[in-house]
Amino acid sequence: MSTALGTPAPTLRGPAAERTARTRTWYAAVGALLLVESLLIFVPVVVLGRAVNWPAGLDAPAATTLPLVADNLAAVRLGYLFYLAYSLLFLPVIALTVTALTDPAGRSRTVTRMAVALAAVSALARAIGISRWLTTMPGLAEQWQGGDDALRRVLAVQFTVVNDFGGGIGELLGVSAFGAGAVLCATWAVRAYAPRWLTVFGGVAGLAVALPAAELAGADIGPLVVVGTTVVQFWFMATAAVIILRARRGNTQKLS
Asked: Which ranges does the record mark as transmembrane (predicted)?
């Protein structure tokens, strides 16, 4: 099947025209959702960046983070709610991407189903990781504000355990393992239908997202953690552009 965006389709009338219009609208909506997903991440980057130095401050000790959480609790809740929305949208975004860029035969392939399954596990793991900032951390921050040195030592241990556990599930497993796997499987699933440059870009994005998983082996990759998230947002944008252009030009796969 050709990977070109194609030329405008011939003019249709009657029921065929209505079906074509609905199909184009559906594809345009999918592209719009991908654009929303690609831009939504910038809300927590800005809000949480100002409040708790996110994401660079995720590994900061309790003595640094808990006072910031207490002083900026509303911003922390708002930022992580947006991050939760972004993380949960990852599942429909991957599912709709492989649906929009393949045909019925492509959608039934094992790699396509794996992409959706990995995206579902990724979204769940991310939600579990994020929940610590919406539930446990505000309580620890409140106790920290009024606690003496003995209590703060206990709270510091609790903070470290919760943060390491939640971060391992959310960031390392949810994003770096399952999230990267979903992107790579989705890229492989659409490789026969999408432009070659988009599939190459998707492969690079998937590998970039997997970079933080190196921490499981004890590697310190420093600022490279942010690279994967940034690259995958640009891949979402590029994928959205391809889908929207196909919808406008009429070169779409027939929905089933």
From this structure: 26-48, 80-102, 114-134, 172-190, 197-218, 224-245
